[in-house]
Automatic annotation (TrEMBL):
The chain crosses the membrane at residues 29-49, 83-103, 110-128, 134-153, 165-188, 203-221. It comes from Haloferax larsenii. Keywords: Membrane, Transmembrane, Transmembrane helix. It holds the Pfam family DUF998. InterPro entries: DUF998. Coiled coil: none annotated. This is DUF998 domain-containing protein.
Length: 229
């Protein structure tokens, strides 16, 4: 290679690397923005549906009661039901879209599958309201477990100390879910039973939703070139 062609080759390589860095940064940002919107829309949808639900008790009633209570004799109150169910469907689509860009940015199969199942679970919760047994319960359980697993496995792609908080949040939710199932099967009262079923359920759901806000913010932050390449 002559001296005249070497600078041109180096410039071409640098331009190619810059495009790769820009592409990864763009995918990370889109993934982060969509995850942030997912958490925000889901939380605000729940709050709004609660505001329109007469006499709603967050400690006694489950989150899904906002869409419809369990059968038989399911109770569906409007506009709370439409607000909640529509919000869950929109949130599920946002999470699935975020999953696509997370996969493009990291190519980590575990993270992709966990987030994809989270989006699918939330979408299913909106499509099948609380009166649709057993489908609603299956999608709700999928949402809770996949959300917690997402927080744990996301530590594989997080490069800051936030990774430890991510594992802690996911681990807490998994431990709580496991204890609810085991103690329920054994007929033993859960230590958090004083919060009511609705309160305990929020201890499961809200940490995951808040985690998506944090993870989304992390992904939207500028990416050092050595990490994006």
């Amino acid at each position: 290679m002559t001296n005249s062609t070497r600078p041109h080759t180096q410039a071409t390589q640098h331009a190619s690397e810059s495009r790769v860095v820009y592409g990864v940064a763009r995918q990370r940002f889109l993934a982060g923005a969509l995850l942030f919107l997912f958490g925000l829309v889901a939380l605000m949808g729940i709050i709004t549906a609660e505001a329109f639900y007469p006499g709603y008790n967050a400690g006694v009633q489950e989150i899904s009661d906002l869409g419809a209570t369990r059968p038989p004799n399911s109770v569906i109150l409007q506009p709370s039901a439409s607000i909640f169910n529509t919000t869950m469907m929109v949130s599920g689509v946002l999470a699935l879209a975020a999953t696509y860009f997370v996969h493009q940015a990291f190519r980590d199969r575990a993270v992709t599958i966990a987030l994809g199942l989270l989006g699918l679970g939330v979408l299913g919760v909106g499509v099948f309201d609380g009166s649709e047994a057993p489908m609603h319960g299956m999608f709700a359980l999928l949402t809770f477990f996949s959300g917690a697993v997402s927080a744990v496995v996301a530590s594989r792609v997080i490069e800051t100390p936030f990774k430890y908080l991510s594992v802690a949040i996911g681990g807490f939710v998994l431990l709580l879910l496991g204890s609810l199932i085991v103690l329920g099967l054994l007929g033993i009262p859960h230590p958090l039973a004083f919060l009511g079923m609705g309160g305990v359920e929020r201890y499961v759901a809200y940490p995951t939703l808040l985690w998506t806000l944090g993870f989304g913010g992390y992904l939207m932050a500028p990416v050092p070139e050595q990490d994006a390449a």
